[in-house]
């Protein structure tokens, strides 16, 4: 008689915490500023000089001494002699004295002696005897139209912290501080196998009894979206020896290995025996969740093995809950978890479920509140329900069902953020 192994389910939070207790770190590498988009900063970005580095003009106009405008008004304009002209990138040679002005362009340093800038639009110019004069009809305040050195960022301040996503704005700042080359966190490499004799490649024609491998492309996408690098090793047929040697071999090359399928209790589910033969420490092999209760995580020689369910929805959820946070943390993210918020359930789930359910869902904002509804067939084998899902509705296990109108937790899939589920 064959005995089906009894596994004790671990609550989802405990399972996530067990994974997060494992150590997994990433190194820093240097890329060019051009290649740095979408990467995560490997160091704090600290200002090593003031921004702007000198007092400068924010407008095209004339640099003057504010006090020389005296009591200037419409009836009594004050005349200034224009003694020099400077564009951005040049420094005035002369120092301003009483009654003098220097024609100055946006971005040029404020000349010595100048205490204000007046825009072109506010002066009248006049040339006589080859000398240029301007007339100012209002009182100008000291410091008017001067962008002060360091007003944008003082020297010595951490402006962007390690782990921040390199956005176009961050790139501008990196360039400002001379980072032609940028230390970024090395993308963790994540090995990936699909298991299942029934699996065909996406470009294969269908055959009786077979399906195309949809998990690997999906997980590759999830790995990339998390900021890591997938290393796809292909499909393994359900053959113990072949699976064992392929997994063992791959573990020489990656620190994290994901397999999909073969973690359940079926006749050809070889992953549990593979962990056993490896001598891996199984952290858990059953989680109190649906889908994905068979999700298994094991550790071997400092490497982490994620055995995700083969069922597409379960596989997706397993990655989001257990793999993504540890990758995010390795990338120094301060927000490794999916953002949690409250939403109004739009559908009844009358049947009580002992396990916490993660329902692939979509959200809609109605009068400032988030409404959430399932995206399709709520079965772990469903692949279509993943398409529109931008959230997971979290329905805690227990003795009651849920009704439309109930306030429930959701985990946002497309927004940055962090809440421990
Ligand atoms: P398993 O976890 O191996 O028992 O697989 C559970 C279900 O998921 C079965 O119906 C498999 O055919 C299906 N499945 C397993 N791997 C994949 C995959 N890579 N792509 C799509 N479906 C899969
Ligand atoms: Mg299988």
Number of domains in the coordinates?
A: 4
Radius of gyration: 32 Å
Uncertain runs are: none
Number of contiguous helices: 6
Query: Which strand order spans the largest sheet, edge to edge or round the barrel?
Result: 6-3-5-4-8-7
Outline, from the CA principal axes? Answer: elongated
Q: Assembly state here?
A: single chain
Using the coordinates above, name the CATH class of the largest domain. Answer: Alpha Beta
Proportion of residues in helical segments = 10-25%
Q: Looking at this structure, what is the CATH superfamily of the largest domain?
A: MoaB/Mog-like domain
**Average pLDDT rating:** 96
CATH topology of the largest domain: Molybdenum Cofactor Biosythetic Enzyme, Chain A
Strand content bin: 25-35%
Distance between the termini: 40 Å
List the helices and strands in order. HEEEEEEEEEHEEEEHEHEHEEEEHEEEEE
How would you describe this structure to a colleague?
There is one protein chain. The protein is α/β, with parallel strands linked by helices and 421 residues long. The chain has 4 domains: 12-26 and 187-330, Molybdenum Cofactor Biosythetic Enzyme, Chain A; 30-51 and 153-185, Alpha-Beta Complex (Molybdopterin biosynthesis moea protein, domain 2); 61-136, Molybdopterin biosynthesis moea protein, domain 3 (Molybdopterin biosynthesis moeA protein, domain 3); 340-412, MoeA, C-terminal, domain IV (Beta-clip), CATH 2.40.340. The chain contains 6 helices and 24 strands. The protein has helices spanning 12-20, 168-176, 215-225, 240-250, 271-278, 312-330; strands at residues 28-32, 45-46, 61-64, 78-86, 100-104, 116-119, 123-128, 131-136, 158-160, 181-185, 189-195, 199-200, 211-212, 229-236, 256-260, 281-284, 289-290, 296-300, 303-308, 340-345, 356-366, 369-374, 391-395, 407-412. A 6-stranded mixed beta sheet has the order 6-3-5-4-8-7, with no helix packed on it. A 6-stranded mixed beta sheet has the order 14-11-15-19-18-16, with helices on both faces. Helix 3 runs parallel beside helix 6 and helix 4 crosses helix 5 (271-278). The longest helix has 19 residues, at 312-330. The protein starts with 11 loop residues before the first helix and ends in a 9-residue tail after the last strand. The mean pLDDT is 96. The structure holds adenosine monophosphate and magnesium ion. Magnesium ion is lined by residues 195-196, 261-262, 310.
